[in-house]
Amino acid sequence: MHPDPAAEAHRLVARHTVYSCVMGSRAFGLATEASDTDRRGVYAAPAALFWRFEKPPAHVEGPAEEQFSWELERFCELALRGNPNILECLHSPLVEHADATGRELLSLRAAFLSRLVHRSFTGYADSQRAKLDASARKHGAPRWKHAMHLLRLLASARDLLRDGALVLDVGAERERLLAVRRGEVPWPEVGRRIARLRDEADAAAARTPLPAEPDRARVEDFLIRVRRASVG
């Protein structure tokens, strides 16, 4: 009998997770009683699995509900590109597990940050704004939860570009953002806030302390050492 691919993938996550955290509204300081618990993680597949024709999966959903994990190499690749979801995962204030490899991954957070985050964060934000505009035209109102998170993302991008540090918790902005989620702020006003934050992110990018490129060599050295250790 051939092994069940889903079961094999779930065993990979269970046995080789190096880092896991809680994301979503709970990590952003926006949780309510109805909020789910979104879990994200990183697993380091043993190097021997890459010697086969069939490679280990680059990402795995589950085994728990609202759980999603990336293989270490894929995670690092996306982080080096400035992927917002991946960088936010690295900066979650709600870490549930980190072994020695996971702790070293966390120590590399600054190595992943560069001016590339301006394009990646604002590019993602622009695509979300287009979807919100389309929803507002079709239904008379946007998807308010998505509007709230777009405001949060743009503020986070602005602060990251301005200060060189990624902070997830929205702090004092919680109630203003939750009012958007409840649909209490008119869409034109939300649209103006989005545009203002987008402009502020662009202005911050012009004088950001972030380096032009991430420290790819440092990250690659880490990945190679993890692979070599798994062989022995």
Concise synopsis of the structure shown:
With 232 residues, the chain is α+β, with helices and mostly antiparallel strands.
Write out key terms for the chains shown.
single chain, 232 residues, alpha+beta, Beta Polymerase, domain 2, 2 domains, 5-stranded mixed β-sheet, 11 helices, 56% helix, globular
Q: Point out poorly predicted stretches.
A: none
H/E series: HEHEEEHHEHHHHHHH
Spatial ordering of strands, largest sheet:
3-4-2-1-5
Structural domains: how many: 2
The helix-and-strand class reads alpha+beta
Label the overall shape: globular
Tell me the number of strands.
Answer: 5
What's the average pLDDT? 95
Beta percentage is 5-15%
**CATH class bucket of the largest domain:** Alpha Beta
CATH architecture of the largest domain: 2-Layer Sandwich
What does this protein structure show overall?
With 232 residues, this protein is of the alpha+beta class. The chain has eleven helices and five strands, in the order H-E-H-E-E-E-H-H-E-H-H-H-H-H-H-H. It has a five-stranded mixed sheet. Helix 7 (116-139) runs antiparallel to helix 8. The radius of gyration is 19 Å and the shape is globular.
Q: How are the elements arranged and paired?
A:
Blueprint: H1 5-16, E1 17-23, H2 25-28, E2 38-43, E3 59-61, E4 67-71, H3 72-80, H4 84-90, E5 95-98, H5 100-107, H6 109-112, H7 116-139, H8 144-163, H9 174-181, H10 187-205, H11 216-231
Parallel strand pairs: 2-4
Antiparallel strand pairs: 1-2, 1-5, 3-4
